[in-house]
Design a protein that fits this description.
Number of helices of chain B: 18
Oligomer: heterodimer
Distance between the termini of chain B: 22 Å
Radius of gyration of chain B: 23 Å
Radius of gyration of chain A: 20 Å
Order of helices and strands of chain A: HEEHEEEEHEH
Number of strands of chain A: 7
Largest interface: A-B, 42 and 50 residues
Strand order of the largest sheet of chain A: 1-2-5-4-3
Structural class of chain A: alpha/beta
CATH architecture of chain A: 2-Layer Sandwich
CATH superfamily of chain A: NADH:ubiquinone oxidoreductase Nqo5 subunit
Distance between the termini of chain A: 59 Å
CATH class of chain B: Mainly Alpha
CATH topology of chain B: Cytochrome-c3 Hydrogenase, chain B
CATH topology of chain A: Beta Polymerase, domain 2
Largest sheet of chain A: 5 strands, mixed
Strand order of the largest sheet of chain B: 1-4-5
Shape of chain B: globular
Shape of chain A: elongated
Helix content of chain B: 40-55%
Strand content of chain A: 25-35%
């Protein structure tokens, strides 16, 4: 771990009881969903992490507790450091408090996670789907969402497959 | 198939002002089919006369599920999807993904491959900025800029065709090095470009930089403050035009960027004109990097010798049994990556292009997330267009330099 990062990790650990992992010099801090807004505020205001570089999630299906990890990648421009916060969330009605009031960039990124993973963000100012059209069923980036495919048609079975092919309706 | 719901004003109620509900201001769709939106972008504008009161971007028209598709492919094969994200920066997208894979599996890259990567990515940066310059000139009525810029861009695309066989979807940078060494004509092609291009940048500047019409349309338009930019996650030239010196090539060098001597242009004005000036200066800085890299381009292999991750050269397959086995294993099964996650980022022409990559111990990624710069850079538009005219919105949108393939993924 970077020497400059040690006091920051200690501060987050002592305040939130966070556990941490390290891989290839990257530090991952695990915090509980209800602590995330405070943790982000602390890192932004006291430790100069002014840029939320990425906000994404991972689905560990079929594991249910926790099924998702919501990932906050923070960058400090003043100190040239990075730290990652991870929030484990359970599979049944996943919910995390919104970070849109701490970082404006979280607004669209959280809408993307709502759209793609079905993770709800409590208190989000604009909870609509962002990439998929309104009214889409399911959450495409979940592991139990099938990757669509098209059946290849040959001369001998062209008509048979054509009957069940999902063409756009008039 | 899911039924698409009728979209009503109810959904946008919290985003527009109260005057829109009484009909005092007008709601107008700009796009999805509009030449100034640089792709398939819909902007829902609330207008008071010709002044923009609110701007609500609606994206997703180009969503192709790249991240989901990559989960179903091996690490090598998923790379071709990255070309299709930001189609103005294909080499850079390859590099971002490849750097992430190399970090995850921990494989070395020969110095010649590193230097060639830098040359190609900087050429790509110039090509991308040329498209931006041409199209934003077009948006502001400078039609000839478009033709000049695309003429020079064609030379760069010819170089890409020379090395990879493709003008745009190159997939030339591979985990552990490059697909193959550059051909002998490469050096002359790049040298010719280096000789020709500085004069062309001077020409562009003669046409635009001091042009009073151009200055009138750009100065004090779309002011973006440092605080707003950081909070919205804006990176790249728009951030540097707002006075933040943040360039990943300097701050966290990858591919040996620390060996090259170049400046990071930073301006504090934060308006459309500052963003224009930053990109014009970046064209010259990229030329400096290419020239230095060409001058000390080392000889040697362009692919790692680590056969567990990098396929052997074609010539070895005929004479070595191990090479044949490695070739077969790598192209049928792929290589396993550790059960761990990494985040790595490079500086694309538009900003921080980050890749979050998580392996599950097998040959396919568990999760790939592309942190694309245009996504965050577009989000800030709703803040900076308020109070400007519709015509200025076009100038601001051009100065942000968005690519819709990059946003919608």
């Amino acid at each position: 771990m970077d020497k400059k990062l040690e006091p920051i990790v200690k501060a987050v650990q002592s305040k939130f009881g966070a556990t941490f992992e390290e891989f290839r010099d990257e530090v991952h801090l695990f915090v509980k969903p209800e602590q995330i807004v405070d943790a982000l505020t602390l890192l932004r205001d006291e430790q100069n992490f002014e840029l939320l570089s990425a906000l994404t999630a991972v689905d560990y299906y079929p594991q249910e507790t926790p099924r998702f990890h919501v990932i906050y990648q923070l960058t400090s421009i003043a100190k040239n450091l990075s730290v990652q916060l991870r929030v484990p969330v359970n599979g049944s009605s996943p919910k995390v408090p919104t970070a849109a009031r701490v970082f404006d960039s979280a607004n669209w990124r959280e809408r993307e996670l709502l759209d793609m993973f079905g993770i709800g963000f409590d208190g989000h100012p604009d909870p609509r789907r962002i990439l998929m059209p309104e009214g889409t069923e399911g959450y495409p980036l979940r592991k139990d969402f099938p990757l669509g495919y098209e059946e290849p048609q040959f001369t001998f079975n062209f008509d048979e497959i054509d009957l069940r092919k999902p063409y756009a309706k008039e | 198939m899911a039924q698409l719901e009728e979209v009503s004003l109810e959904q946008f109620k919290h985003l527009v002002s109260e005057r829109a509900l009484t009909g005092e201001t007008m709601l107008l769709n700009m796009g999805p089919q509009h030449p100034s939106t640089h792709g398939v972008l819909r902007l829902l504008l609330e207008l008071d006369g010709e002044v923009v009161v609110n701007c609500i971007p609606d994206i997703g028209f180009l969503h192709t599920g790249v991240e989901k598709n990559m989960e179903a492919k091996t690490y090598q094969k998923a790379e071709v999807m990255t070309d299709r994200l930001d189609y103005m920066n294909t080499m850079g997208n390859n590099l971002a993904y490849v750097v992430a894979v190399e970090k995850l599996i921990d494989v070395d890259v020969p110095v010649r491959a590193q230097a060639l990567r830098v040359i190609l990515v900087e050429l790509q940066r110039i090509a991308s900025h040329l498209v931006w310059l041409g199209t934003s000139g077009l948006d502001l009525g400078a039609m000839s800029m478009f033709l000049y810029c695309f003429r020079e861009r064609e030379d760069i695309l010819d170089i890409f065709e020379l090395v990879s066989g493709q003008r745009m979807m190159t997939t030339y940078i591979r985990p552990g090095g490059l697909w193959r060494d550059v051909p002998v004509e490469f050096e002359k092609a790049v040298r010719d470009f280096l000789k020709m291009f500085p004069k062309r940048v001077d020409e562009y500047e003669t046409l635009l930089t001091k042009n009073p019409l151009f200055i009138d349309r750009m100065v004090d338009i779309g002011y973006l403050s440092k605080e707003v930019a950081l909070s919205f996650g804006v990176t790249g030239p728009p951030l540097r035009a707002s006075g933040v010196n943040w360039d990943l090539r300097k701050a966290r060098p990858y591919c040996g960027y620390e060996q090259y001597d170049f400046n990071v242009p930073v301006l504090t004005e934060g308006d459309t004109y500052a963003r224009y000036l930053v990109r014009i200066q970046e064209l010259r800085e990229s030329l400096k990097i290419i020239e230095q890299a060409m001058n000390k381009l080392p000889m040697g292999p362009v692919r790692s010798e680590n056969r567990k991750f990098v396929p052997p050269p074609r010539s070895e397959i005929g004479v070595s049994m191990e090479a044949l086995i490695h070739h077969f294993k790598l192209w049928t099964e792929g290589f396993p990556a550790p059960k761990a996650s990494i985040y790595s980022a490079i500086e694309s022409p538009r900003g921080e292009l980050g890749v979050y990559l998580e392996g599950d111990g097998g040959p396919k990624p568990m999760r790939v997330h592309m942190r694309t710069p245009s996504f965050d850079n577009l989000a800030v538009i709703s803040q900076i267009v308020k109070g400007h005219l519709v015509a200025d919105l076009v100038a601001i949108l051009a100065s942000i330099d968005i690519v819709l393939g990059d946003i919608d993924r």
